[in-house]
Design goal:
Immunoglobulin-like, 3 domains, five-stranded parallel β-sheet
């Protein structure tokens, strides 16, 4: 996106997987710009500066409640500011592969209530160093829900929850603003659903075709439950049509599962344009949670009509019809081998849990002194991966202990090399 001599405000926008010169996602050229609750994820720079944002003579650039993650620039920063007066507040910069999170050449900079952590070129470096450890700023793992799949929502133990600017409007759950683009709801829903597709958006030719996706569904209740799952389609005209899929999803207490591949058939006579596929769980038609993906159909029906089309209603692929999609529950508790080990700054461990239970993962030095709590909370039965962040710790040998309330504890040795 390019703006020249303009003064736009962007709210609740996602800038994902873009590439360009001078701002992989956004270039601001002479003007003001405000970004609120926006995420910049997976953008990369082909040339110039700024993997996510390039601001050239940005008179006033405001980044409030934004998330910058997994952006890439081989020799440049995530955000490049040239003669720009910039305010960054209640935001997150994490896991960017860039020379620095922010680089400043002229202008002013103010940073507050922001988490900058685990960036390849350093965290509070350059112009940011003046703000390290003050104004509510931190350097801690934000604990994203699923960064590898670009889900940058916060999980329960995140240090970014309720630590944003207390003077900003409260989050919808009536708590202090969370850092980053997505707030953490302190009153979790009974269940959640998240969609994943090889392509988003998915492009179809004029003769129609099939949109394929999977759904990850979580039961947050400490009791077995059967959700109803269904899919609605928003047509290019804006009209809502469906359900095109509908099925019951039975789940164990505090469990999570991923469906087999679901296939949405799109007929040849469907009008061209952009569609939104929305998957819901709840008790039809009342929704507990939903998620969506987009697809684009190229070409128009012969009569040019945008009337609702009688798509085939499908139900296969959900748990009710695909027993193979039920979660793999281990028979016993196991703390898996960390990888990599030895490691530099971060490594990952695996945990196998036969039942849902309280789990505390703690790091000790060789004298037995506790140096870090890696994870402390309830985990569902199943297989888990947990990142261990050792930023700020000295080179040496450490002991990692996974303590459960039902299956005892296990320990393994980690070697940190810097």
């Amino acid at each position: 996106m390019y703006g020249s001599n303009a003064h736009p405000t962007f709210t609740n926008c996602e800038f994902i997987d873009n590439y360009a010169s001078n701002g992989g996602a956004v270039e601001v050229y002479y003007g003001n710009a405000t970004f609120e609750h926006c995420s910049f994820v997976g953008n990369y720079l082909t040339s110039g500066s700024g993997a996510a944002i390039y601001s050239y003579y940005g008179y006033e650039l405001n980044l409030t409640c934004c998330t910058f993650a997994m952006n890439q620039a081989s020799a440049d920063p995530t955000v490049y500011l040239y003669q720009s007066d910039t305010v960054i507040s209640t935001s997150i910069f994490a896991q960017n592969t860039c020379t620095a999170p922010v680089s400043v050449s002229g202008g002013t900079l103010d940073v507050s209530y922001t988490d900058i952590c685990d960036n390849s070129g350093g965290d509070w470096v350059g112009a940011l160093s003046a703000f390290e450890g003050i104004n509510g700023n931190i350097c801690e793992d934000p604990l994203f829900e699923d960064a590898n799949n670009y889900n940058m929502r916060l999980t329960g133990p995140s240090p970014c929850i309720d630590t944003g600017d207390p003077n900003l409007p409260y989050d919808p759950d009536n708590t202090i603003a969370d850092m980053g683009a997505y707030y953490f709801d302190h009153e979790p829903l009974p269940g959640n659903i998240w969609l994943s597709s090889p392509y988003d958006p998915w492009y179809l030719f004029s003769n129609g075709g099939t949109v394929q996706f999977t759904a990850r569904i979580r039961n947050n209740l400490e009791m077995p439950v059967t959700f109803q799952g269904w899919v609605m389609i928003t047509l290019p005209s804006g009209q809502l049509y469906g359900p095109t899929m509908q099925a019951n999803v039975s789940m164990q207490a505090a469990s999570e599962m991923t469906t087999n591949t679901l296939s949405q058939v799109v007929p040849s006579y469907a009008p061209m344009g952009v569609y939104t596929l929305i998957a819901h769980i709840g008790l039809f038609p009342s929704t507990i949670h939903s998620d969506e993906i987009q697809f684009v159909k190229m070409g128009m029906a012969a009569d040019g009509s945008e009337a609702p089309v009688a798509w085939e209603k499908l139900a296969y692929g959900w748990t009710a019809d695909a027993p193979a999609a039920t979660p793999d529950i281990p028979d016993e508790f196991e703390l898996g081998t960390a990888y990599p080990n030895p490691f530099n700054a971060t490594t990952t461990i695996s945990l196998k849990l036969p039942v849902s239970q309280q789990v505390t993962v703690t790091l000790f030095d060789v004298t037995g002194r506790q140096v870090k709590t890696v994870r402390d909370g309830v985990l569902s039965a199943g297989n888990h991966r947990i990142d261990v962040d050792a930023h700020g710790l000295a080179t040496g040998v450490y002991l990692l202990r996974a303590q459960t309330d039902r299956n005892g504890s296990q320990v393994q040795k980690l070697v940190l090399v810097k």
